[in-house]
From TrEMBL:
Residues 10-62 form the Inner membrane protein YgaP-like transmembrane domain. InterPro entries: YgaP-like_TM. GO terms for molecular function: transferase activity. This is Sulfurtransferase. It comes from Desulfitobacterium metallireducens DSM 15288. The chain crosses the membrane at residues 9-29. Keywords: Membrane, Transferase, Transmembrane, Transmembrane helix. Gene3D superfamilies: 6.10.140.1340.
Length: 71
């Protein structure tokens, strides 16, 4: 798995898990968990527009493998 977008992307896998988990928690525990779903969506939009992604920084800090982009 790699940090960058595309097949095998850690960021997409983690974002999907966060959204699914927070929706389930919102349905079965408290509706306030849906705010977390909104936060994940805002961060995904921010990342697509600016290139800044806090999860990418976290993954780099723990040593996740980065895919080499060839030109």
């Amino acid at each position: 798995m790699y940090i960058v977008n595309g097949k095998g992307s850690w960021i997409r896998l983690i974002a999907g898990f966060f959204v699914l988990a927070s929706v389930l928690l919102g349905v079965f525990v408290s509706k306030y968990w849906l705010l977390f779903t909104g936060l994940v969506g805002i961060m995904l939009m921010t990342s697509s527009l600016t290139g800044f992604c806090p999860m990418e920084l976290i993954l780099k800090a723990i040593g996740a493998e980065q895919r080499k982009v060839s030109s």
